[in-house]
Design a protein that fits this description.
This protein is of the alpha/beta class. The protein has a 5-stranded parallel β-sheet with strand order 2-1-3-4-5, covered by helices on one side. Helix 2 runs parallel beside helix 5. Bound molecules: 1,3,4-trihydroxy-5-OXO-cyclohexanecarboxylic acid. 1,3,4-trihydroxy-5-OXO-cyclohexanecarboxylic acid binds next to loops.
Length: about 150
């Protein structure tokens, strides 16, 4: 089972970026911990990682997703603005889970809307780096039983 993990803008700065909101773990460490968690779930999970600060690059990456079974995506600020990323997920029909480190529903009003959620199987928000593990668990369970 091949799963792509996409992280959007400013998430390359995790570790130093507003640690009181996003924690102090770097994106590289989050990814390594997700690989370890995937091994605990099954020896059948292969993870690839992509981070970009550019909307079009994220869309191009989603367009090239045909070799994957599923997508975990933290679209970061594009969550609240990007109909184009949402459309790309719908167009490819990839089974996707939306992830947020912070609880977007308990923050500023402009973060409460997600254009991405309607293209996804489900969403996880508010559990910091554990959100990614919860997303992988949910996606793995869904794909295994598909
Ligand atoms: C975020 C939440 C977004 O509102 C914000 O723009 C981010 C990170 C999160 O993971 O909590 O960059 O997606």
């Amino acid at each position: 089972m091949k799963i792509l993990v996409i992280n959007g803008p400013n998430l390359n700065l995790l570790g130093t970026r507003e640690p009181e909101i996003y924690g102090s773990t770097t994106l590289n460490t989050i990814n390594q911990e997700l690989i370890e968690f995937a091994k605990e779930l099954s020896n059948d999970i292969e993870l690839d990682f992509f981070q970009s600060n550019h909307e079009g690059d994220i869309i191009d990456k989603i367009h090239s997703i045909k070799d994957y079974d599923g997508l975990i995506i933290n679209p970061a600020a594009y969550t609240h603005t990007s109909i184009a990323i949402s459309d790309a997920i719908k167009a490819t029909k990839i089974k996707a889970v939306e992830v947020h480190l912070s609880n977007i529903f308990s923050r500023e009003d402009y973060r409460k809307n997600s254009f991405i959620a309607s293209s996804c199987l489900g969403s996880v928000a508010g559990f910091n780096k554990t959100s990614y593990k919860m997303a992988l668990l949910g996606l793995y369970d869904y794909l295994k039983n598909e």
